[in-house]
Amino acid sequence: MIRRTVLALAAGLALAAPAIADEAPRDARPIRWLVGLPAGSGPDILTRLLADRLAPILGRSIVIENRPGAAGNLAAQALARATPDGTTLGTLLAATVSINRHLYPQLGFDPARDFTPISHFASFPGVLVVHPSLPVETLDDFAAWVRAQPRPPLCATGGAGVVPHLAMAWLMREIGGRCEFVHYRGSPEAQRDLIAGRVTVMIDGLPTSLPGISGGQTRGVAVTSLQPCALAPELPTVASRLPGFEALSWIAVGAPAGLPETVAARIEAAVAQAMTDEALLARFRSLGVEPAASGRVALAARIAAEDARWGALIREVGITLE
């Protein structure tokens, strides 16, 4: 009887072992989160908002480490070289993982090989804006005006090689027009020159363009999302005239390649949970971005699709950083 009892107890403990292991304390080490832009930039603010919600879900503190420079490549290099144990995350930008490898001869990382995509969490469209003196109200007006100019109009960008720059190159190709790009160090400087009339057109992020549009200092023509935007529902989409035209700047959570499946799944689930927080969603929308938790599969597919699309455009149009 005693022997049978001992054997039964031993069997019960063996069966219970996996459940006990599942309930073991999670890794309590702090997470370092790399951001390739300065503190106070849009992606930095959004990352910090998400990190504040993620920390209690994961039961770990999160420390944001800004490593600006080289169009986000410095932070991406550091992320690619980090130990894949869940202690290092990074903010992946659309340009960093889908554009830069086609423009920079030596990145120091391979976007397709060196990262574990976790989840997209925010995006915002661009908007085609013009100086209000132009006889342009619609996309058709814009196409006709561009083609009628004896010299290519000056087109501002917030930086060479970013999504709005490529979006304008794509639009010009589609409408059979040309422009002369003037690259600035950020959107605010570009917007100032557009308002002053030193340049006449640009595609820029909708959130940064809205003040000028609302104040009548610039005129919004069309947004670069597939669907109309809640921030500016009166603006049509470029896709309504050019089907399939979509150019979004987006932000995602990533980790080094080789992250264990269980760790990746846990972080993905934590992001999905954080993105159900109504206060967080409201804060994102107040900043002009659309929140969304896509998950690993959808994010990997987006990166691959945009890498192919932007790479083909860069080669066809001959875009360089020189």
The tally of beta strands, per DSSP, is 10
Mean pLDDT: 89
Biggest sheet architecture: 10 strands, mixed
The CA-CA distance between the termini, in Å, is 85 Å
Work out the radius of gyration.
Answer: 23 Å
Q: Note the run of SSEs as H and E.
A: HEHEHEHEHEHEHEHEEHHEH
Secondary-structure class: alpha/beta
Low-confidence stretches: 1-25
* Helical content class: 40-55%
In DSSP terms (H or I, runs of 4 or more residues), the helix count works out at 11
The percent range for strand residues is 15-25%
- Which geometry do the CA atoms define? globular
Topology:
Blueprint: H1 2-22, E1 31-35, H2 42-58, E2 62-66, H3 73-81, E3 88-93, H4 94-98, E4 115-130, H5 139-148, E5 154-157, H6 163-175, E6 180-183, H7 187-196, E7 201-205, H8 206-214, E8 219-223, E9 248-256, H9 261-274, H10 278-286, E10 290-291, H11 296-317
Describe this structure in words.
The chain is of the alpha/beta class and 322 residues long. 43% of the residues lie in helices and 19% in strands. It contains 11 helices and 10 strands. It has helices at 2-22, 42-58, 73-81, 94-98, 139-148, 163-175, 187-196, 206-214, 261-274, 278-286, 296-317; strands at 31-35, 62-66, 88-93, 115-130, 154-157, 180-183, 201-205, 219-223, 248-256, 290-291. Strands 1, 2, 3, 4, 5, 6, 7, 8, 9 and 10 form a 10-stranded mixed beta sheet that branches. β5 (154-157), α6 and β6 form a beta-alpha-beta unit. α2 (42-58) crosses α9 (261-274) and α6 (163-175) packs across α11 (296-317). The longest helix is centred in the C-terminal third of the chain and has 22 residues, at 296-317. Residues 1-25 have low confidence and may be disordered.
